[in-house]
Design brief:
The structure holds two protein chains of two kinds. Chain A is built from 14 helices and 17 strands. By secondary structure, chain A is α/β, with parallel strands linked by helices. Chain B is built from five helices and three strands; from the N terminus they run H-E-E-E-H-H-H-H. Chain B starts with 11 loop residues before the first helix and ends with a helix. Classes of the chains: A alpha/beta, B alpha+beta.
Amino acid sequence: MTMDNQQAHLLKSDFPILNTAYKGRKVVYLDSGATSQKPQVVIDAINQYYRLENANIHRGIYRLSETATRIWSEAHEVVARLIGAKAEEVIFTRNTTEALNLLSYTLLPLLQGRTEIVAGAMEHHANLVPWQQMAKRHGLTLKIIPMLADFTLDMTAAQQLIGSKTAIVAIGHVSNALGTIHDVHKLFAWAKALGALTVLDAAQSAPHLNLDVGKIGADFAALSAHKMLGPTGLGFLYGRRDLLEQMQPWQFGGDMIAEVSYDDAKWNELPMKFEAGTPHIAGAAGIVAAIGYLKSVGLEAIGAWEKELLKYAIAELGDVPGIKLYSAGEQRSAGILSFTLATVHPHDLASLLSDDEICVRAGHHCAMPLMGRLGVSATARASFYLYNTFEDVDMLKVGLIKAVELFG
Amino acid sequence: MDDVLSRQMYQENILEHYKKPQNFGHLAKPTHLYHSHNPLCGDDLTIEIAVVDGKVSDVRFSGVGCAISVASASMLTDEIKGKSVEAVMQMTKDDVLELLQIPIGPVRLKCALLSLETVQKAVGGGE
């Protein structure tokens, strides 16, 4: 199955927000890297949950609670199948950030005295600061794989950095700031050959490609529902069962316990051991619908279409006066394009584009060290998803030229 | 502010100040200096001030920023020259907006006010 511009237009019609005009203009949404829009089926699923199915999960011995519990566990199975895992290996969190923080607070006993954590130069703050702070807390060292001039990771340096002292290799699969797809398969193979744990930040990849945690060699993976057509407030942590069993919970309360006395407690089985408190049950209903929608289009087709859009954008935007693209090219990137204009600051550009209801992100993209490495304080970023069309890119180009002309 | 188009912010005088900012650079001997960072957009602003007899005798700014923050720093640094430290400390958001003379929505207000915050931190922070 492949996607083309016509199908992208058809899919766009499934997303109410993209078909709602504001002052006569429809939104040109080029910020899916921040969060995706939601199709009607997802909105309906959440709506139906609150209208007809709402109750708390577990231990409610009545029909509604049984329904809610079924929705909750079905969602674990659906997410697990999406990434090639088992349901008990998928912990539901608030978001990718919380999933990675969970790891940074629970992995210490599994490090076998190793003292180094390795991450990439392009990490989102969510896959950098938790490790940096874990390193500070426990006297570990965080090592960064440098970036090459072509916006890819320096794999030669990476091979040297990953060694017998390496405890964890934590890599963002796709750079949220630049779109580069990293060769995590190779990085994780090196890590595992030396006995290190591997952590995949899949926030920017899971919505856009077929992810198989086993094939990729990820011991852990973190992703967010809201970047893959689902609701905000729900994320996922995959962990290899044998590893999760050795880890201690980091949040305590209801649902995560098996038995409690005033003096002690025993933990529930996986994944509940890591899911304390009432979770985002409506979100579970939403993500099941979202994954169903993504699968009906096909993740491979979606990823290929985004590469088409990226290729088109690189060609079309390349001749805007004063533009500089920060891209490894469509072969090695997902549908994200970061750029600057010589005369217009990204923030001013985003304001001006907003006049035409064109949504791009401007700033450091939660990757401040990377911006420093690029020698800029900020870039503008367009990011694509299945509902974007060639016309969206054309509108962006018109907007860029208007901004350049205004600034003279 | 909902009905205001962003392009109305980019009046000729704003763009003029952005392209050719006043007081851009460094002082040989500043008595007060403060460095600010706007985490929203990555903007970076350093204000250097020479205070003589309780008055701003000279001022420079440096850094990178959007048109709104640079224009605001350019105009504000002109405005405070010759003012007493007390008068500078009493300046408010409205004084800056009066200088800029453009409609600014809530999202961009931070850009417009970064220079005043930095100036006040510089002179308010002691010698």
